[in-house]
């Protein structure tokens, strides 16, 4: 009886250990799935807008003549923006904001490029600002938005000499779209990601999460829920097609969102002519704010040389 009782006791402890292990493993799996789903939602769901979003600057504050414009995407959405006319030139710069951004974000550089003698178009992506509500992404759906903006600019200025300036996701879009549109004559890409996989992986790393399993989970969830996989967005694979058109890559040395290594990766695979400006001390999309005068002057000179 004693031996039998001991055997039962050991079996009970083993069963409890197995149950605790299974519970822990199940909780870890549920937690990992939750993080993956949260990641995909943050990337794709619209930002909740509040009353503060209506209290923004407009071209009136910087005394820029402008027209409030709207134009359609291929999938039937209406995007809204500002057109800064510059009579007497066929140079047009289209600005592309970052992820979930709004046209007001580019009012500083947009007004600076207008004063430098360019027509300028700023616009809101789908689901952002004043444009029609629609599902977002991190550059997958928004490629159609930038194409629609370029089409509108060409309607405004026939035979336009076009340049693109983009920030973060918008910089990645500028690379991807210019690679397929030889009529785009020059690109400035500020804080672009080389691959979306690299950005999401870096985000997990900041929270000390193992990037490989979480990337795989969130990537599969993103494909199932939102219709695209992370590998669909790889500007590093497209950037070589920009040559021989001029390219200026700008990146903050202290960028904590898109590590500066992305800029070096893009620069390494880009063709000539190309420039790389690493802004020491700048965070994500922060080079403009370190020295506005120098930033605008350098961007304007780049487009002046490329589009003249």
List keywords for this structure.
10 helices, globular, 308 residues
Description:
The chain is of the alpha/beta class and 308 residues long. The protein has a domain at 58-195 and 233-307: 3-Layer(aba) Sandwich (Rossmann fold), CATH 3.40.50.1820. The protein has ten helices and eight strands. It has helices at residues 2-44, 107-115, 142-156, 169-180, 196-206, 211-226, 235-238, 261-269, 287-290, 292-307; strands at residues 67-72, 78-84, 91-96, 119-123, 161-167, 184-190, 247-252, 274-279. An eight-stranded mixed β-sheet has the order 1-2-4-3-5-6-7-8, with helices on both faces. Helix 5 crosses helix 6. The longest helix is centred in the N-terminal third of the chain and has 43 residues, at 2-44. It is globular. Residues 4-9 and 18-30 have low confidence and may be disordered.
In short:
By secondary structure, the protein is an alpha/beta fold. The chain is built from ten helices and eight strands. The protein has an eight-stranded mixed β-sheet, sandwiched between helices.
Strand line-up in the sheet with most strands: 1-2-4-3-5-6-7-8
CATH class of the domain at 58-195 and 233-307: Alpha Beta
Number of helices: 10
Question: Could you please say which CATH topology of the domain at 58-195 and 233-307 applies here?
Answer: Rossmann fold
Shape: globular
SSE arrangement, N to C: HEEEHEHEHEHHHEHEHH
CATH architecture of the domain at 58-195 and 233-307: 3-Layer(aba) Sandwich
How would you classify the helix and strand content by structural class? Answer: alpha/beta
Helicity level: 40-55%
Beta strand %: 15-25%
Given as residue ranges, the uncertain stretches (5+ residues, pLDDT < 50) are 4-9, 18-30
Gap between N and C termini:
98 Å
Mean pLDDT: 89
